[in-house]
Every structure is written in structure tokens, then in C-alpha cells.
Amino acid sequence: MRFQDIVGQDELINHLTEIIDDGRVSHAQHIVGDERDGSMQVAWAYLQYLCCEHRVHYHEGPLRADSCGECPSCRKIATLQHPDLHFVFPNPPNGSPTVSSADYMGEFRKFLLDTQAKGTLDDFNKMLSVDVKTSMIRSTDSAHIIDVLSMKPYEGGWRMLVIWNAFKMGTEAANELLKTLEEPMPKTIILLVDNYDKKILPTIASRVQTIRLREGQHDDAQQNAAEFAPMLVSWLRLLFKLKMKDLSAQVDKMSSMDREQQKTYLNYVSDVMRQCYLQSAAGLPCRIGSGDEKFDAMFPTMVTENNIELINNALNDALFAIERNAYSKLAFMELSFRMSKALKKR
């Protein structure tokens, strides 16, 4: 996960990268924001930037810096395979007194990858087919946290822990973590992630630094859907036919928008592609909201594990070009060809 993949949090991201570059990283931080606004995405990208071996700094554009996405550390964190990256999250009882997040770690990593960290606790519990009310973070999770954070890092860098939906932590579990939060081992970072309206225990809140996301980005997404859906549906249908005269006219419409609208449109398309992939790969509800029932029912099956990476790469490259004032018609035409080719690889 790179910062460039997160929509609507540029100001916060620039603040975070500046803090990391200055070496002022707080060992315990509380990231507060709706999943749809990118709270878990920020945590993921934050750790990737923290460990990146070749950070990229920009002289122009909305972001001041980002992780390279290519070094060994970036690749491991992007795929959630870094040995020093650990997760704790609300987990359901399975009849065992020793149940903890470790019992569901494979499912949780898959959930984060499939949803690109925008899935909710309700979504996760639906995937596990359990009642959200029974899920919690227990004292067994605290014991696991203390254990993994006391170990020597496998790769000699940071020990990293993300506690997702930390508000579900019971009093006993929280009390067992207080000393770890106050006096962690060197080069340890603990990120707690919660929704806006959820409250962690005061004993925990007093020991962490709060980072609050800009609210309402998912509301903006609904507005974008109403504005851009007709253009998106027309464009995608043309990608299967590739009639150049009609495609060229559609590209003219997209490139006639101003730069900010073009960027917002591309981010909207990226979110639609993600929603489609969630339906086809994870069985989660698809909330495209294009207004075209036939499209909403048919198109999600076109986005699969065989082409989602190609689609994301094409959209990210187009967004990068637009941000750097490339000739927009050329950027959208190249994107059209790449998207057409990717969609046919389903």
C-alpha cells in the first residue's frame, strides 16, 4: 500500500511523511477514521513508508513523498508478508479458551488484500460467518502482543503492530498492554485503528498519540458516482468494442474536464474496480451505484484476480501522468487500450 493509493487524505499524509523523515516517530499512535475514508490504508501505507529503503520525494504534486513500492521491504509489506509486521483484531470465540487473532491471521490478511483495507468489521465477520457482537480482542491477544513485541526483529528493523478496531479491546486485555504502550522495546511502533464514533478505553487513549483523518470522503464518493457513472459506463462498454471513432469521442469528453476533475474521475474508477473485485473474489457486497442495473449486475464479473493488478497499474499510471500535467487525451487513450486489454484477460 502506497500513499498515492489513498484518496482525500493528502494533507495528513504529508504531515506523516514529514514526521517520519525528521525521525520524530511516536511509538504508539491512534489512527481515527472510517475505513471508507482510508483509516486502515493510512496505517498500512505509513508502515510501508517507515520501512522503505528508497523513499521517493516529489518536487510537485499533492504528495511530498511516498514509499518506492519496489524495495524488498515495500514488497513484503505490500503483500503483508513482512515477518516483523503483526496484526491484532476482534476475533470470534471458537469454543477454545485460548482463541486469539493468531487463529484467524490467514483470513485477516486475505481480507485486507481483497478489500485493499477498506472493508469494515461487519464485512470481516460476514466473511467468517460470525456475529459481530461476539468478536472482541481478548487477554490471549494481549499475551500474543507482548510475546511478539519482545522478540528480536527478524530483519533488524522496526517491530510493527497494528491493532484494528481497538475499541473492541476488553478491560483485562487493555490493562495487560499498558506497560507495553508506555515502555516498548526500541524501534517498536504500535498503530491502533478505530472508527470516528468508537471510543477506546481512557487508560489506552491517554498513552497514544491521536491521528484523525479527514471525514466524509465516502460521502464524496457517492457524489462522484452520481457525476461520473454515466461517463464510466459508456467508456467501459466502448472498451469491449474498440470502435476508434466512438472511443476517441469519449476520450475527448474525459480530457475536456479540468485536471482536478480528471484526477477525481480516475480515483472514482479505481474505487469501482476495487468494489467489483471484492464481489468476484471475496463475495462481499458490490456497491458500485452506477444507476445502470444491467451494468452493476454484469460488470463486476469482469474484474478478477487475473486482471486486477493490470487494471490498478493502468489507472495509477494515468493518474501519475495527469498529476504531472501530461497531455490528457494521450493519457486517457493509452489508459483505454490498457484497460481493454486487461478486461479481456479475466
Strand tally is 7
Mean pLDDT: 85
Q: Can you list the strand order of the major beta sheet?
A: 4-5-6-1-7
Write out the CATH superfamily name of the largest domain. Answer: P-loop containing nucleotide triphosphate hydrolases
Query: What fold name stands as the CATH topology of the largest domain?
Result: Rossmann fold
The number of distinct helices, counting runs of at least 4 residues, comes to 14
| Corresponding CATH architecture of the largest domain | 3-Layer(aba) Sandwich
SSE-based structural type = alpha/beta
CATH class of the largest domain: Alpha Beta
The figure for the number of domains is 2
Q: How far is the first residue's CA from the last residue's CA?
A: 23 Å
Q: How helical, in percent, are the residues? A: 40-55%
The major sheet is characterized as:
5 strands, parallel
Gross morphology? globular
Beta-strand percentage?
Answer: 5-15%
Task: Work out the radius of gyration.
Answer: 21 Å
